[in-house]
Every structure is written in structure tokens, then in C-alpha cells.
From TrEMBL, chains A, B:
SUPFAM superfamilies: Putative DNA-binding domain. It comes from Kitasatospora aburaviensis. Residues 83-110 form a coiled coil. This is MerR family transcriptional regulator. Residues 128-144 have a biased composition (Low complexity). It holds the Pfam family MerR_1. The keyword Cell inner membrane does not apply.
Amino acid sequence: MLIGELARVTGSTARALRHYEQAGLIGSSRAANGYREYDESAAVRVRNIRALLAAGFTLEDVRPFLGCLDHDVLAAPPSAAALRIARERLAVLERRIEAQSAARDRLVAALAAAEKARAGAGTGAAGAGAARAGAGTGPAAAGS
Amino acid sequence: MLIGELARVTGSTARALRHYEQAGLIGSSRAANGYREYDESAAVRVRNIRALLAAGFTLEDVRPFLGCLDHDVLAAPPSAAALRIARERLAVLERRIEAQSAARDRLVAALAAAEKARAGAGTGAAGAGAARAGAGTGPAAAGS
DNA sequence: CTTGACCTTGACGCTGGCGGCAGGGTTGGA
DNA sequence: TCCAACCCTGCCGCCAGCGTCAAGGTCAAG
């Protein structure tokens, strides 16, 4: 399989694949003309890599998983280091989701308050008061 | 308040504040000597901005909230336009949270499968089988 | 032989959020 | 008078994951 086909079947691009190779995540044999050649397992490997990337991993983070990615998924008996990194990434993801959910909740609350203020008073003076009530849970409180 | 003090009270840096200004997120009056001068509300505003950034917003994302950040929190004089933008942002937030939650779920599933495989078989042959079972929800399935 | 679709390496560009340095001006205190 | 501690603008660097030329070589088809 040449690089273009691998790109197609993995939903990536030739450029990305060369990038992964340069990062040491995938390998390739070379044909006589210098073209990269891949076998079937490369497709699986690349899909796994991209899945990890999509999950917020960096290329560096993916490296420890290389042993597993060959076979079929990243569920092969992974090294302790791989597990550790996965958990770290998971924690980061959780924190990010948490932070964004908090932002969302604040925004929802602010919207509700704004609409209530709208219904109550037109000028916004009363609205500012209602708004201030939400301030405790608002971004200003998150000044860590 | 000069930029250094504002940086101190907001836990940021002068460099960052100039960056926000260049991005149009904060303003400043200038003293005769050209120094930036800020009033108290600037600190609140900056803290709000940083809170949003910490929540995964980009500077661009923050821009629509500017009207709210001035006063005290993100509850503004609820103009129809502001409400609309807020709702748009809310939708974007929801989508982002959704995407990241999906990534998290995949990662969790992969971890669970990995640990099951670990507990089940050491060599990897049987482990690969167990792994394959988890593959449906695992990264390999996320080849979009 | 030519065309056109593939492939190669190399190198610069881009986005985001600053850090850091260069090369200055200003101000207050010893 | 001189230093230290501020401030200014401007610009390059960095990380990450590629995109996008540029400038070619290769190969099958017409």
C-alpha cells in the first residue's frame, strides 16, 4: 500500500502520515523507487493513533502505546507507563470538561437572570441587581 | 493602576495584559508618559477573561462576552443581540463538552478493557481477544 | 513522447497564548 | 548623578499538528 492509499483508508493525509513517521510513530519500508510501502497493520495502527490524538493525546503521549497499536486496538496488555499516561490524559480531559461545564452552567444562569431582568425591568438597573446575585458563581469568583 | 500592579492583582503578567489589549479584550487610558492606566473594573474584567480562558475558551470566544465582563459578571444589559450571542456561545460550549465527553468515554472504555485484559491474560493472546471485545467503543472505532 | 497522477524531501506558514529579548524612555530615591 | 525599577514598542521563539508550496523523480496510459 502506498502512502496515498493509506491516507485514504485511514481518513488522514499523506502529510500527516509522514509527520507520524517523522515522529517515530509509524514505520515504512521503501520500494526500489523510494516510495513508502505499508502493510495492512499500518492502517489499524494509524487509526489507533488518530483515535488517541482525537482523545486529546499528543504524539509524544502516543509513543508509549506503540507496542499495543500494532495488533488491533489500544487494549492490548499495555505497559504500566502507557496506563499512567492514559490516566493522566483522562484527568486532564475531566478537568477540561469540568471547567467547560462550569462555564456553561454560569452562562445558562446568566441567561436566565437576564431574561428575568428583562421581564421585570426594562432599563437594566434592576437587571444589574439580579445579575449581581449570580456573581458568586460567576467567572469573577473563579479568579484562581 | 499601572500594568504591573494589574498583573499582580489578577495573577497574570504585563505581557499577557498587553496581549489581551491587542486582542481588543481590554482597554486602557494612557498617562502623559504613555503608561497604561487602569481602573478597578479592569481587574474584574481580566479575572473574568482569565476564568473563561481557563475554561477552554479562546480569546476570540471571549470577545462576545465583553459587554458583560465590564460591570461585575457576565450578566449584562440584556440586549437582544447579546442574548443571541450568548446562546450561540452556549451552543458552541455544549458541542465542545459533548465532543470531549465522547473522547473521555472512549478513553475510559479503553482503560477498562486494558485492565481487564491485564487481569485476564499476561501473554496477550487471550488479552487481545478481550481487547477486541472492547474495541467497539474503543479508539479503533473512532476512525472518523 | 507527453500527460497527469502519483511519489520524494525540504522548508515555510498557520493558529493560540503568551515568554523573552532588544532597545529605548521615565521616575523616584540614595 | 546615577542606579534600579518601572514602563513602552516591536519582533522573534515556542509547542503541536499538520497545510501548503517548491522543485523535483516515477510510472502507467494514451
